[in-house]
Amino acid sequence: MIRQRRSWVGLISICGLAALGCGRGERCDRCESLVIAATGQPQSVLPALVVETVGRDISDQVFERLADLRPGPPTLDPAAFQPRLAARWERVDSLTWRFHLRPGARWSDGQALTAEDVAFSFEAFSDSAIDAPARPYLQGKLKVVVEDGSTFLVRFGRVYAEQLYDATYHVRVMPKHIWGGRPKESWVGDTALDLLVGSGPYRLIGWTRGQALTLEAVLGANQHSRIRRLVWRFMPDPDAALDLVLSHEADVLESVVGADRLRRLSNDDSIVQVRYPSAAYGFLGYHLATEPDKPQAILGDRRIRRALTLAVDRSTVARSVYGNDVKVPPGPMSQVLWIWDDSIKALGYDTAEAGHLLDQAGWSRGRNGLRTQAGRPLAFDILVPGTSPTRRQIAEALQEAWRRVGARVSIVAVDFPVFQQRLARGQFDAYVGAWLDEPSPRGLADQWTREGWGALNYGHYANARFDSLFARAAGESDVGRARLAWREAMDTLNADAPALFLYAPTNVAAVSRRLRGVTLDPYSWLSRLSEWSLATLDRQ
User: Is residue 193 part of a domain?
Assistant: First the structure.
């Protein structure tokens, strides 16, 4: 049970009419609060336990990384990193970096933050009992050695280009004096608010499960937040979140998807549409198991996968769902991943060649237009989450495109938890998925290499040559050579067609005009929130 210091219900009662304007000279909670509409809610905001993006958004206002990564530059470029909890750092040798903490760094409960806290946090993120998403990047690969209260070393087990990225990006520092004496197995259930102490610009003051969470600015020499209070309102679906913004009960929404929702948003001139590239990409993934007499055996044939890819006008499908700002990715990557390269070789749109490949593979077209092989139809299912109308729309477009080349495709929509379970168990023929990129392309290993079996490579794709090229690209230290190596790896992946890479969208955030200085980071859209400010609400 969460112990609350402040009631969200009280905040609503005070602020119910605030969107209509406050009287001059008067102050109310709503005037000094930024309300964020969110779809879904986090299970935890303790950094090592965070798995949802909304949990990350909240946690990042309370807990800090050692350094911030500027969006855009390659992650192997040391100049891409800016001081945060660490004021400076230097390379000691090819395996070691020395970090110096920010002078005067303190936890929000007043205790000094030390290098011991850093060592404790890296150990927690690496622990199998916690099983943080970042554990594969840390466990057995680096070690933190405390030199004194404000200085520590990060030592790596091997030489590679992204050492600074791994030392700073994955771990948010947590207080040892609070969590160090608690068994890690109990952390999930131990979520009292007074334990969630961070060093960031805000502290947690209220959390009503299923409704809202409130943060308050921390005043101190190293904190300069311009907004006094942040409130997350948790909504069950994207339409409810948009309704909250349109009713002026919330000030900002991360992304508005769909033509109908954007039209609704356009009718309110008190809300600005802020476009920024998404860190996500969408695709149709195939199950490549080859058991006889199962549809997956069909999709295990490289010629079939290439034919299905050639049969789809990906640009038209993407624009029909996401509008003209969407891009068709040249592989498994978002618009902001630094390895994006328009010269990567990808299969185009060629229905004649698609038909030729299917003929060559022995799938003959009958009078009804459908293809069969020895009496067996060219048929399979597409699995989609029932809560996502956009994925359903994409599946319907693919269904029609493949019908025209002789494939019979069914769409299976299930609740999202069932969708996840079926993917993990391999109970699908094909599925429409979407992944959120990490800044480093090494994050693609879980999705498309043999290493990812049992992780996110649900289709069990494996290609030894691609894996070898992937490893070589990940090991390059020169940016120019790395780009060439990644391009060769993606050329190989695309030729094998383990998936149909469909869209890399542009997000449209809904932002109230009372917000000033809004800058959105595609990898963590609220990461610069402490620089935003609120204009005074005057009575109209």
Answer: no
CB atoms near residue 406 (< 10 Å): 23
Q: Is residue 94 assigned to a domain? A: yes
- Domain extent for 499: 280-503
Which is it for strands 96-101 and 151-156: parallel, antiparallel or unpaired? antiparallel
Work out the number of other CB atoms within 10 angstroms of the CB of residue 362. Answer: 12
Three-state secondary-structure class, residue 270? coil
In terms of Cα–Cα distance, which of 500, 72, 85, 83 is closest to 308?
Answer: 500
How far is residue 492's CA from residue 418's CA, in Å, rounded to a whole number?
33
Q: Do residues 485 and 521 both lie within one domain? A: no
Rounded to an integer, the average pLDDT of 201-215 is 94
225 in the same domain as 136 = no
Sign (positive or negative) of CA dihedral 450, 380, 504, 508: negative
The arithmetic mean of pLDDT across residues 244-273, rounded, is: 93
Rounded to the nearest 5°, which phi and psi values hold at 37? -85, 125
* Cα 62 from Cα 67, distance rounded (Å): 15
| pLDDT reported for residue 12 | 27
> Is residue 80 situated within a structural domain?
yes
The verdict on 214 and 286 lying in the same domain is: no
Length of the chain: 540
Q: Where are the beta strands (DSSP E) in 70-211?
A: 81-83, 86-93, 96-101, 142-148, 151-156, 202-208
Strand 212-217 relative to strand 96-101, pairing? unpaired
How far apart are the C-alpha atoms of 365 and 349, rounded to whole Å? 20
